[in-house]
Amino acid sequence: MKNIRLLSIAFYLSLTVAVTAQVPYKRIADAGAEPGNWLTYSGDYQSHRFSRLAQITPANVGRLKTAWVYQFKQLGRQETSPVVVEGVMYVSESPTIVTALDALTGRTLWSWRRSISPLVKTIGFGRSNRGVAILDDTVYVGALDCYLVALDAKTGAVRWETKVEDNATGYSITAAPLAIDGKIIVGLSGGEAGIRGFLDAYDAKTGKLAWRCWTIPGPEEPGRETWGGDSWKTGAGATWLTGSYDPDLNLIYWGTGNPGPDWNGDSRPGDNLYACSLLAIDAATGKIKWYFQFTPHDVHDWDSNQIPVLIDADWQGRPRKLVAMANRNAFYYLLDRVTGEFLLGEPYAKQTWAKGLDAKGRPIVLPNTEPTIEGNLVWPSLQGATNWHSPSYSPLTKLFYVAAREMGAYYYKGEAEYRPGTFFAGGGERALDGDKAYGAVRALDVTTGKMKWEFRLQAPPWAGVLATAGGVVFGGSNEGNFFALDAATGKPLWDFQTGGAITANPISFLIDGKQHVAIAAGQALFVFGLPSAGRGR
Amino acid sequence: MKWNRRLSLFAFFFASAIAAARPGQDRDVTLTADDLAQGKRVYVGQCSLCHGIEGVGGRGPALNQPTLRRAKDYQVLYNVIKNGVAGTEMPGAWQLTDREVRRVVGYIQSLNRVEASKLTGDAGRGRELYRAKGCAVCHIVRGEGGASGPELTGIGARRSAAYLREALIDPSASAPDGFLLVRVITRAGRSIRGLRVNEDSFTIQLRDDEDRFHSFRKNELKDLKKEPGVSTMPSYKALAAAELDDLIAYLASLGGPK
């Protein structure tokens, strides 16, 4: 009885800690040391989306049960990846709602909703929100109407809000911000509206702009010569997914989207820097240290916003700081993240547009693969061989896990007439869907890009993957399956039908000392754990 | 002088505004021959797969006729192209600009409009034949019939007569989407063949020819074979030519729920 009382006191104390927890930058920089929490969008600055928790294993994952389910407050496309800090889960919802949940029970602690008019422009993408950032005692969220908002982590009260750009011209935010030392990094959407892309850094305390890094160079800037005429002004290069950060190098790694207009490149002759690129940006100044362009003069809408995964591994016999990306254009790339040097590029899904990559990683584009008025069949489809859903890297298996999409499309070229705040795409596609398309979770050797195993999926997925130290990879399907695979072999170990399409990324964390896994599916967030005698789970 | 120029500009734009088609109006007279040629290129690439070259029809209805069943005037045709038709295979052309859609509308309206080739069959007799041949065992028309084949309530609005003829003579040449035949063999060695009702990465649900549902976990099956392009519908090529015409006339008359 005494023990129970003591436990109760400890439990309530832990709750007290939870709602007053501070998350200084150093904790995020060392996120691997506290795997019980999930402190940033991809789990750590390296964007491994890897959990060092090892309680759930191939041997026991078959016993996973739902711990609780949280129903989202407003119908919408739920693409969120929550953050968890000492028993509190911060989850964002469509269109711009942030809710703090008691991770023990799923009960709401507070919820904040931004008033989003139905007239808010989301040109070329859904009205979603993919997550929040936390720093010290503040939660940060990008709003669909293109504001950055800081919320008190204890109450959800607004501390400040900053207008990032004008939504009337097509700028918007769906990505989770990235919190680094004293700054909040914010990427934006709008690549189908002829915006000029940028990445912003804001002072975490005041919301004041610290720097802006344009992804499309202006007059007198290097790279401007890669745009014919005034086409740079509507060159897009959106930054719509959360990037990575190397604290030692103080470099931010952030992918950029398609050049505008998407499918008709006639008005923008040249390589169109820095669209479809990975940028390494000095976190202090916002200056571009290096860039690597995956798809020069893209005409298939193959944004390169996918998650850059920072890996320290041996490359040709010596340790090297690397960055890996499974690109929407169907190639897996490995670069030196200090210099941007191209090291390796291998296709990881069907592609019919390039003969291969040259020694510098530039694609050798095959003839007759451009969109035409009549339509041209090319793999991958415009949604890409992967998309915004996250990959995962396990330092234990040394495998890079990616949810790949096997789908071709007829690409059409059309007219592109720029009018601010309207669709500026110059064509489109008709995808080969149904049984003509499929998906797979694939495990790639991180330094060769060769596939070690795959697990086939019924349809091209929109769900990310999570590898764990227990040797399990979690993933999701369009048909609502949340599942676990053996990280070493890809063998399916467990699956659960959630009843709604999964278009989100899994995370893992501790509740009461027990490993749990969370995934948004349909209109709900599901949390799974191993049953234990204590709480009836 | 300046004022005169402004006036003439005003007159020009006013005339243009009148000339351009507006809701309820029948044609966009501002389209040039070049616009129609551009519209044709888009049509050939993006529409003819279903509606046939020069709108003769196919998987989709013919468009070379004086009156289109779902698009009786300019604005409705514009909306159908831009937004698609809910509940059918007709997608919305989100990829086309306003001007491109107008060109396609113009091209479709310019097609050599011929009276629908008079179907020689008798729809009344075709209806009797439909009953006598047991088509309703597998197909629903206006709420009556079985569901192992596609519903035919609005088939006349969705398919051309030529397509219906082909489907009757050689059903597997136009096996409908959503009616995939699957054969599974269970671990116990039991073989079941049926139409796929649903499927995900781990499970599959079938309906056999006696309308019984079966649900399997894929990893518990010894074998799973899909038969794309295979139809369970028998061929009706043995029908007398006049009977076939009657049946097609009946199916073509099915424009939707009453």
Characterization of this structure:
The complex is a heterodimer of chains A (537) and B (258). With 537 residues, chain A is mostly beta strands. Chain A has one domain (2-52, 65-529): Methanol Dehydrogenase, Chain A (8 Propeller), CATH 2.140.10.10. Chain A has helices at 2-20, 25-29; strands spanning 50-51, 65-71, 83-85, 88-93, 97-102, 108-113, 133-135, 138-142, 147-152, 158-163, 178-180, 183-187, 198-203, 209-214, 244-246, 251-255, 277-282, 288-293, 309-315, 318-326, 331-336, 342-347, 354-357, 363-365, 376-378, 392-394, 399-406, 409-413, 427-431, 438-445, 451-457, 466-468, 472-476, 481-486, 492-497, 507-511, 514-521, 524-529. In chain A, the strands form ten sheets. A five-stranded mixed β-sheet of chain A has the order 1-32-33-34-35, with no helix packed on it. In chain A, strand 37 (514-521) and strand 38 form a beta hairpin. Helices cover 36% and strands 13% of the residues of chain B. Chain B is built from nine helices and five strands. Chain B has helices spanning 2-19, 33-46, 48-51, 74-83, 98-110, 123-132, 155-158, 161-169, 241-252, and strands at 181-186, 191-199, 203-208, 213-217, 221-227. Chain B is globular and about 70 Å long. Chain B starts with a helix and ends in a 6-residue tail after the last helix.
